[in-house]
């Protein structure tokens, strides 16, 4: 059973993206790409804090240190400590579109797929044997075999394609291996005039247990 969507943060984002649940902070982090922002919703008191950056912020990921996050900017990837940052970080303009890359802890970058319209959805099955990645414009999510010992993916095949009621964007996998989106970002760009909740963060309650977020192994913890 799935509950009705509830607006939990009316932030008016132009293009909300990258929602990540941080259990240690009891908070949800997400971005507004067009306004160069990172938001954090603290569930304990329903407060929202926002950091302003000097270039687009496209996505976030946890690391194996609770106080450090990986932030993907328009021109580079940085390690970010929200507790020590009053305003946000800067970077140089640039970047590449339409590819799937892997960034290793030693800063080695490997390209795994090219020719992607809008790259979205990075998720793993609970047993770490399957990896999911999507192209919003192509209306497809692919599934790959995943080798947890090397981080390699193989045997690309469609998992969901041609969905009639929308286009795939971010997602997460629950403890039973089903693909979901539970905290939902939205966009105010091209929203109907007078839609006060466009660009808000919404939540959906389900009866299915989730699984912990994946962490970028930068500080030496095991996969």
Mean pLDDT: 88
What portion of residues is helical?
under 10%
Q: Sheet with the most strands?
A: 4 strands, antiparallel
Number of strands: 19
Strand content: 35-45%
Key phrases:
19 strands, 0% helix, 43% strand, 223 residues, four-stranded antiparallel beta sheet, mainly beta
Give a description of the structure.
It is a single chain. Strand 9 and strand 10 (109-113) form a beta hairpin. Strands 2-3-4-5 form a 4-stranded antiparallel β-sheet, with no helix packed on it. The protein has a 4-stranded mixed β-sheet with strand order 8-7-6-19, with no helix packed on it. Strands 11-12-13-14 form a 4-stranded antiparallel β-sheet, with no helix packed on it. The chain is 0% helix and 43% strand. Residues 90-96 have low confidence and may be disordered. It has 2 domains: 1-89; 98-173, no CATH class. It has strands spanning 6-9, 16-22, 27-32, 37-42, 47-52, 57-63, 69-73, 77-80, 100-103, 109-113, 119-124, 130-135, 140-147, 152-161, 172-173, 179-180, 183-185, 201-203, 215-216. The protein is mainly beta and 223 residues long. It has no helices and 19 strands.
What is the topological layout?
Layout: E1 6-9, E2 16-22, E3 27-32, E4 37-42, E5 47-52, E6 57-63, E7 69-73, E8 77-80, E9 100-103, E10 109-113, E11 119-124, E12 130-135, E13 140-147, E14 152-161, E15 172-173, E16 179-180, E17 183-185, E18 201-203, E19 215-216
Parallel strand pairs: 6-19
Antiparallel strand pairs: 1-18, 2-3, 3-4, 4-5, 6-7, 7-8, 9-10, 11-12, 12-13, 13-14, 15-16, 17-18
């Amino acid at each position: 059973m799935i509950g009705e969507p509830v607006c939990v943060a009316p932030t008016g984002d132009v293009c909300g993206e990258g929602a990540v649940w941080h259990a240690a902070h009891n908070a949800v982090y997400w971005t507004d790409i067009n306004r160069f922002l990172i938001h954090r919703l603290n569930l304990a008191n329903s407060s929202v804090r926002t950091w302003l950056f000097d270039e687009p912020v496209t996505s976030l990921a946890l690391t194996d240190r609770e106080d450090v996050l990986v932030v993907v900017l328009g021109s580079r990837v940085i390690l970010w400590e929200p507790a020590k940052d009053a305003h946000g970080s800067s970077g140089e303009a640039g970047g590449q579109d339409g590819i799937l890359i892997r960034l290793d802890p030693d800063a080695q970058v490997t390209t795994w797929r090219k020719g992607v319209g809008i790259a979205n959805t990075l998720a793993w099955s609970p047993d770490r044997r399957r990896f999911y990645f999507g192209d919003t414009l192509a209306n497809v999510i692919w599934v790959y075999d995943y080798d947890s010992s090397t981080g390699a993916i193989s045997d690309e095949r469609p998992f969901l394609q041609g969905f009639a009621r929308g286009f795939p964007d971010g997602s997460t996998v629950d403890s039973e291996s089903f693909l979901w989106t539970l905290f939902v970002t939205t966009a105010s760009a091209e929203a109907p005039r007078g839609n006060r909740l466009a660009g808000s963060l919404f939540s959906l309650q389900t009866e299915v247990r989730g699984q912990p977020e994946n962490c970028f192994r930068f500080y030496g913890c095991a996969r």
